Amino acid sequence: MDQLACKWVAFLEHIGPMAVLPLLVGSAVLMLFGWRLWRVSAAFTYALIGIGVAHALLGSSGSVWLCALGAALVGGVVGYVLGLHGIALLGAGAGGLMLAQFVGGFHLPTAAMWVAGGLGAFLGLGLAHLNLRQVTIVLTALEGSMLLVSALAVLSMSAPSVYRSFAGFARQSTLLVAFVVLVPTVVSCFYQMSDVRRSATEALVEQRNAHRS
Question: pTM for this structure?
Answer without folding.
Answer: 0.71
